[in-house]
Structure formats: structure tokens, C-alpha cells
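Q: For a teaching session next week I want to show students how multiple molecules come together into a single three-dimensional assembly. I've collected the sequence lines for a complex. Could you give me the predicted C-alpha cells for the whole thing so I can convert them for display?
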Amino acid sequence: MIEVKNLRKGFADKTILKDVSVNMLPGQCNLIIGSSGSGKTVFMKCLVGLFQPDSGDIIYDGKNFTKMSVDQKKEIRKEIGMLFQGSALFSSMTVEENIIFPLDMFTRDSRKQKMDRVNEVLNRVNLEGANKKFPAELSGGMMKRVGIARAIVLNPKYLFVDEPNSGLDPQTSGLIDQLIKEITEEYKITTIVNTHDMNSVMEIGDHIIYMYQGEKEWEGNNKEIIFSKNQRLNEFIFASEFLRDAKDMRMLEETGKIANDRNMEDLTHDDAPELVPSPSE
Amino acid sequence: MGFFSEIGKYLLMIKGMFSKPENWKMYWKEFMHQCSEVGMGSLWIVVIISVFMGAVSTVQTAYQLTNPLIPKFTIAQVVRDTVILEFAPTLVSIVLAGVVGSKIAGELGNMRVSEQIDALEIMGINTKAYLVLPKILAALVVIPMLIVIAAMLGIWGGKLAGTMSGIISSDEFNKGLFAGFIPYNVFFAMAKAYTFAFLISSIPAYYGYNVKGGALEIGRASTKAVVVTCVAVLFADYFLAAILLKND
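A: Of course. Below is the structure for the complete assembly, covering every listed component.
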């Protein structure tokens, strides 16, 4: 579990994070969402220790990360895996060398044990046989999967994922989301995902934190977000007509009603009549 | 203010390199890799430059020594001392600032921009120690070796040019090489070699490690690293000459 208490961070005279407090539970996908410049990335970088917060506490399973020495932080970091937006694979190394790197650095296992572990995680991300390929030979989705394999190879307790779907097609995005969710539940990892992708929000959002101008504006899950009356959140999530229709459809299915500010005619489009359920259904 | 701030950040980077390695074997592997990169990657250019600088020294010295009272073996003496004192350490270091410096700045800059350095940090690795220190140590081991090779090849190139063009005979050149040889000059050359090796590796590492932005900024950082390193090498060259070469 990761507890964040009154986290503040600024650069020069501009405050980016304003007293953010949140608890993130193991076995859940904790999604941080918000528009560009809302402080999501700074928040995540503070959590992993790439930025030192101005004040507040970050507590990893009872251990206060913000008050630790550099060496103590190193110990916590060995329990952290991270998938970067651009995957951050070592370009001069093969897939196998990328994944074995943390094992070589931090374990005294035999070569065979390490190779077994590499093949195990490659199988887990459905990339068996890609051992000898270089990052330049991989597609965007494959690079993300190698990034996930490297992040979980040391069995981390905490997994941080930055924009997992950027640059990916919707189908591959769905596969990556599903993989993150499965790994989180299987290994009981506390997963924190920084995303803009609304499909991810709806599919894997066990716990969603909406950031607005450096503050936690809303918190809930992917069921509650549909019924939220928070105007800023609704404007951000349901920014397009299509998504507003989808929201109303979901509300209609679950409550028999649609949003107060909309009426049934809003759902009736000449070019998409099938969106409206027929009375016989 | 900017200059002192840069110096301060550079010194902090140097200080940050010294921590206990997470895994000695991995650090040793990285050190050996860097030795190979710096040494083998620069060997051919050093060989070519050295032979030609020696050859040109012989021809130009002979051109200027027109007085028949000056013995011909003086040419070899002049070539020897010029190559050992200045050409091998300084000229080769200026070239290495371009070859090795831009490579170090580009490599680290690319790692920074593509978040590979962040990935290492999050794994719990001291990236200054793992990425920068092996490069500096490798340069301190390999660059003085390259400079010794450059000095020998420079003198050999001078002899080759002299004998082939009929400026000086082989025997006369050998006689000049041993006449009035001052071993201290070799010490001076090695002092320069170690100083320049440190500058050639640490300054580009600083610029590469602290790149912010994208591909354009990596290019700018590489260029700036080479320019600053060349200026620093020339400044150090004068400084070392001023303090180490004094006729008491």
C-alpha cells in the first residue's frame, strides 16, 4: 500500500502539487488522470523519488519514503518496477539483455535461474522467442510488453506505469491494459497508472484519481465515474459527443435514466439509430 | 552567475559518482566496455594523425633550419621534443575531444531523453556512478596509452618522412633522438595526458547527463561539450606548461 499525505511540490515560484493526499491499495490499478499540466507526471515522479517533494509524506507499507536516506531509498526502489511512456529500453541491448539487467545487478542467481526467469516473464507478456531482438526491431506494443517484462522481473511490490497507451492503436492498447490488470491482480502489486486514455479508465480503473491544477479533484472507481456530478471531471472525461452518448447508454442500462442535463433525443442520431435500445429490449 | 552555477553542478556530478557500487561485476563489465569504446574507437584516427604530424614536423623543421652550421640531427631533436611536449598530448587530445567527447555526450544525452537514465535510477542504481565513472576511469586508463602510442608513431613518422625524402639519414635521425634527451619531458607529457583525459571524459559526460529536451538538444549538447572541452584542454595546456616547465 502507498499512502500519500499532503504532498506539495513546486518549481521556482509555481506550485505544481497542492496538498495531494491519497491511499493506493495492493492488487488494484490506481489510475491518475487529468488534463496536460494538471500535475500527474510530477506526482508520479515524486512517488518514485525522481523529484523531492517540498513537503508531505509518501509512505510505502509503513515506511516513510520522503524521510529516508539515499541508501534506504535504494532498498525501496528495488521493490519498484516502472514502465515508461517511451518504454525506456536500453537500445544497445537485446530484449533478453534488457530483462536480465536488473537480475544481474541485484541478484546472485545462477545464469540458468536468471534465464528461466527471463523466459517466464517473456511468456507472461506473450513475447516468447523475442529474446534476441533489439528494441529497434520491435513494434510499439512489443516494446511496451518488454518494458512490462523488465519492470516485473524482480517481482516488484509496486508498479508504476506512465502513459501505457500513448502511440498505440486501440486494440493493442486494450491488450496492454488487460496485461497490466492481470499482472496487478496475479502478483497483488500496487499499480499506479498515469493515463489520458478513457478506455483504460473504464476498463481497468479500480481506483481513479482525477487531478485538476495540482489538486485531487475527484476520487472513485470506474463505476462511480459514470454517475459523478463533478462538472470538471465530466468535461474532461466525456469531452466528445460520442463519449457522452456512451455514458448515457451505460447509465440507461444501469439505472433506466440518463444524465439530468440531457434527454433521450440527444441519443438519437440519424446516422446511429442502433445506439437507442428499442422498447422491445 | 551561469558560469559558476555550471561549475557547481559539474562538481556535484563528480562528487555524486563516488558511492559503493550495487554490483562490482557489472561495474567492471561497464568499465571494460568503455575502455574498448574509447580505445578501439579512437585508435585508427590517432594512428593516422600521429604519423602525419611527425612527418610534417620533420619537413617543416628542415625547411626552417637553413644555417649550415646547425647539424642535421637537430631536426630529430626538435621533432622529438615537439611531439612529446605538445603534439602527442595536446593535438591528439583535441581530436579525442571531438571523437570521444561527442560520443559520450551523445550517448548520455540519448539515454537521458529516452528516459533510460530515469529507468536505471528507479531500479535503485546510482547512474552517476554506473554511467559516468566508468567512462572517466576508462579515459584515464586508455587516453594516456593512446598518447604514448601517438608520441612513438609521431617520431617514427618524422623519421620515415625525413629518410624517404632525403632530408636526413636514418643514423643522423637516431643520433638526434638520443641527444640531449630530458626524461622530465615524458613526465610532463603524461601529466598533460591524465589531465586532458579527465577533461575529455568528464565535461562531455556533464553535458550529456544533463540534457533536457529532444534530439535537437542532444546535438547542441554534443557540440557544446566538444567546444568547451577543447577550450578547457587548451587552458589546461597553458596552465600545466606555466607551472611545470620552469628553468630554475
